[in-house]
Amino acid sequence: MWRRRLTCLFGGEEKRVDSRTIHAGRGSSPVADAFPQQKFCDNRIVSSKYTIWNFLPKNLFEQFRRIANFYFLIIFLVQVIVDTPTSPVTSGLPLFFVITVTAIKQGYEDWLRHKADNEVNKYPVTVLEDGKRVGKESEKIKVGDVVEVLEDETFPCDLVLLQSSRDDDTCFVTTASLDGESNHKTHYTVPDTVKDVESLHATIECEQPQPDLYKFVGRMHIRRDGQETAVRSLGPENLLLKGATLKNTKKIYGVAVYTGMETKMALNYQGKSQKRSVVEKSINAFLIVYLCLLVSKAFVCTTLKYVWQNQHGQDEPWYNPKTQQERDTNLYLKMFTDFLSFMVLFNFIIPVSMYVTVEMQKFLGSFFITWDKDFFDPEVQEGALVNTSDLNEELGQVEYIFTDKTGTLTENNMEFIECCIDGFQYKNHKFLTETDGLCETDGPITITLNKAPEELEELFLRALCLCHTVQVKESQPVDEIDGVVLDQVDGFSPSPEDQCAFIASSPDEVALVKGAMTHGFTFIGSDSKSMKIRNRDNRVEVYELLHVLNFDPVRRRMSVIVKSESGEVLLFCKGADSSIFPRVRKEEVDRIRVHVERDAKEGYRTLCVAYKRLGNEDFARVDAELREARLSLHDREEKLMAVYNQVETDMILIGATAVEDRLQDRAAETMEALQGAGMKVWVLTGDKMETAKSTCYACRLFQRGTELLELTVGALGEGEGKREERLLELLLEYHKRVVHDTPPSKTGLHRTWSSPGQDYGLIVDGATLSLLLNASPDGTGSHYKNLFLKICQSCTSVLCCRMAPLQKAQIVRMVKSSKGSPITLSVGDGANDVSMILEAHVGIGIKGKEGRQAVRNSDYAIPKLKHLKKLLLVHGHLYYVRIAHLVQYFFYKNLCFILPQFLYQFYCGYSQLPLYDAAYLTMYNICFTSMPILAYSLFEQHISIDTLLDHAALYREVAKNAMLRWGPFFYWTMLGVFHGLLFFFGVYCVFSNPALLPSGQVFGNWTFGTIVFTILVFTVTIKLALDTRHWTWINHFVIWGSLAFYILFSFFWGGITWPFLEQQRLYFVFINMLSSMSAWLAIMLLIVLSLLPDVLLVALRRPRGRNTRQVRRRLPSSGTSTIFMLSQTASGHSFSWSD
């Protein structure tokens, strides 16, 4: 680590170089002398935060950055240095407890990160050195090493593919941990590399590391003995990324180009920072107010003390003469010392024990999420997991949800639903049966025996079997392909060679091939030059594969050029309707458009299929142009695009397909509930726009009436300068339409479908986002971003497709740092989602099929997306209400506690004499009043769980930190002031005649303080009992038990002579106090008067709003004894109302 940092510090020269030069195999090469030697980082991955050496100072520094911890440290030091009325133990012990517990917790979490890093860095790999296979640890790989990777292994660094065990010089990888796509992607070896990589002499020039997963530019100089050096271009199809997994390929060899923290995966990783909840920020704000109160009280008492002592005879009364040392003490130093003493005396207004209670509440409360049986999923045999208990209440404040698509919203399992051929719709999988097939025509759904011509049907099926990048892996048992039982169509039983699994870069391609197979045409397999299919007559057809025109998001289509056995050259093309329709005859479009629009409304993924016959001269011209474009080193993509657009014209439209991407169970219901709760849902995915758009429709994020606005490469057009101009035009147009011309929503957050206005949805892709975020730095960049953000915030839902992991984090950061600092939540299931999970205020990991990187880096993990509904609407809502009440209650009860102490100074000559005994000062927050509020903050349910689930709008009532705003804070503060004044002056009136016993015995100042303290303890405890809506046996035990403990403690503390005490101020004080009827009357009367406003407020206040009335009807009546059940029931959390 130190070597890497020193390299970054002193080796800055490399950062100024635009490209890097790598010598393959690290052996001597005749061309090596032509390039300067460069230094690169090693292959170690570091995600941990601390080391053994910096843990203690770094952790202490981070903890004492919190205002409360720093304040308590100062108070503790003052108590140690200055002679104060209270012991240093009262502040030191709670502070030590909080610091120690937090340090242990954070140290354990970082140890887990160290452990995960070691698993990756110590992973065994095989490297070729001097022609020999050498075993190494992954962290010892260096740039230029030739690495061997076997099937199902993960690539240890970013590699350029040199050699593959497959005959067609390709390999297949899955990048689920990078971009969330679990489908197989095809990568190609560099052309003209020798089969024996041990004798390879080559040099690679490529760009410096950058985080874009889909871009890579370079060239490779290959030298052969006795031949001229060959130069071959390198692109993303040649680059194997760290974190991806090798599939359906026994072995590959690749040369390391990026290692360690310079790999694309590491560059897309966001370091895990400590997250702070909005409640903690509110506590700090309230703390500043109470600190100001504390300083003001200390300043007022100090000032009045010296004003009073300046009066004649008050500075040095005859009964308390000063010592010579006191007379010689500097006046200002003495004033400062007195100020500090008053600060310590009034220090208890700052609730030191609140932080301990909050930590305990968060830690213990997190177990309720883990224990909730509703979160248990039988498929993964696991329940919810809490990685960070500090953010429980943040679950109740979410305003924006950023969700991944693949594996989160969907199961990534597409199914062929139907198709349309020449205007005839084929449904219910009754495609081509012995009864001529069941078809449906346009208009009403009626069964008819009419169908498309047989020649056109077979041509359509051949197009489905040939126009794809699907590969076959012979690994499945007989009669099963990829887990799907094969149908016997037209008496055809699949032969053993057909027993195989399909793998492809897109799940819809597999679905289409399976659909064709089910209906009589089976794709058998392919190699680099041919493709084989079995037709309905059980005859194998072989086609020569001439060219593949790959899919890209601009064209939104793909094509293949094949030659049949008869020598006919055919181009088959499939793609989005918006991409295919302009390139076919207009008279053919109308017959297909009806079906495409109807399927799209149903949320299906639709593709149109077309073909074209190429003559020999046409093909020769196209072939030459394609080969020339693919060998180009500059503007390769633009040249290929021009050829693609030229050849994909004047096609004949055959039909269309409809494929369904299965949603997660109850995904649509969950999304609808979350939007009803006032949360805005953004979908951030690396998938194609068409697939993601259909998923948004299926999840009800986009409705039929939603007007979609596009900010995509296709909408911007071509040309860099024109794109920026077009982008600004679209932003201004959308801003005017969505922001200016749309009336503001009255409720602010909830979906606009409840209002008569138009709903808008925005679609943006990764390329356009890069243009937005990296716009020219002349001031227009921030203008673009502000316009974009306002448009997004005014839309019902936003879809961001073709996003790199780092772009996902940038989107989250942009919203998080916008005006109002809205609370964000990110949910995903793959390593590609880790960056946005770490960036958001709350990160949720789904225990899906894409590994556990998201789960490990998340704050909370759930098995399925459907569990997010209860996690937010129930747990989040209740946690926030509980902890908000806890915070307000702590400030209130401590103000009640210390205000009589402040008032008492006016009657004791500002002598810093405490009103309460030292034992009461120490145990008030620790024993007498801490357990009832802790139980309340764990078990309170002001609204039943079923009601919270049924009425998602209730979530909005506590949104935007509603219970911890300044209004409720000042209400609790005024209530504390009222109670404190009533306690002190009420008892003061009783003591107008201190002879409260029949014997005439006079009560003193300690009895006065004890009566005040007794009223205080009973009032704040009964106040909490009145606020409790959900009683459990635990609440009864701690509330009444705390009061009983106070009485017993006071009896024993004042009724026994304790030998370790130098002076026992409360000896028999409490017992004598209870022997006075006046004291009893004063205690009961003042308690009733203190709580009377609360009772009247609850009795006279009427519920406001429809939701409140509904909740009131669902709550138990006031006369019902509600018992909180912690039992093993099917209700999951087992929170239930019982009589």
UniProtKB/TrEMBL annotation:
Membrane topology type: Multi-pass membrane protein
EC identifiers of the protein: 7.6.2.1
Domain P-type ATPase A: residue ranges: 123-264
Keywords of this entry: ATP-binding, Cell membrane, Endoplasmic reticulum, Endosome, Lipid transport, Magnesium, Membrane, Metal-binding, Nucleotide-binding, Phosphoprotein, Translocase, Transmembrane, Transmembrane helix, Transport
Compartment list: Cell membrane; Early endosome; Endoplasmic reticulum membrane; Membrane
Boundaries of every P-type ATPase C-terminal domain copy: 855-1102
Keyword presence, Lyase: no
This protein's name: Phospholipid-transporting ATPase
GO biological process: phospholipid translocation
GO cellular component: early endosome; endoplasmic reticulum membrane; plasma membrane; recycling endosome
Primary subcellular site in the record, as a coarse category: membrane
SUPFAM superfamilies, alphabetized: Calcium ATPase, transduction domain A (SSF81653), Calcium ATPase, transmembrane domain M (SSF81665), HAD-like (SSF56784), Metal cation-transporting ATPase, ATP-binding domain N (SSF81660)
Residues that, per the record, bind Mg(2+): 404, 406, 829, 833
Organism: Scleropages formosus
Highest rank taxon of the organism: Eukaryota
InterPro entries hit by this protein: ATPase_P-typ_cyto_dom_N, ATPase_P-typ_P_site, ATPase_P-typ_TM_dom_sf, ATPase_P-typ_transduc_dom_A_sf, ATPase_P-type_domA, HAD-like_sf, HAD_sf, P-type_ATPase_IV
Location of the P-type ATPase N-terminal domain: 37-91
Reactions performed catalytically: a 1,2-diacyl-sn-glycero-3-phosphoethanolamine(out) + ATP + H2O = a 1,2-diacyl-sn-glycero-3-phosphoethanolamine(in) + ADP + phosphate + H(+); ATP + H2O + phospholipidSide 1 = ADP + phosphate + phospholipidSide 2; a 1,2-diacyl-sn-glycero-3-phospho-L-serine(out) + ATP + H2O = a 1,2-diacyl-sn-glycero-3-phospho-L-serine(in) + ADP + phosphate + H(+)
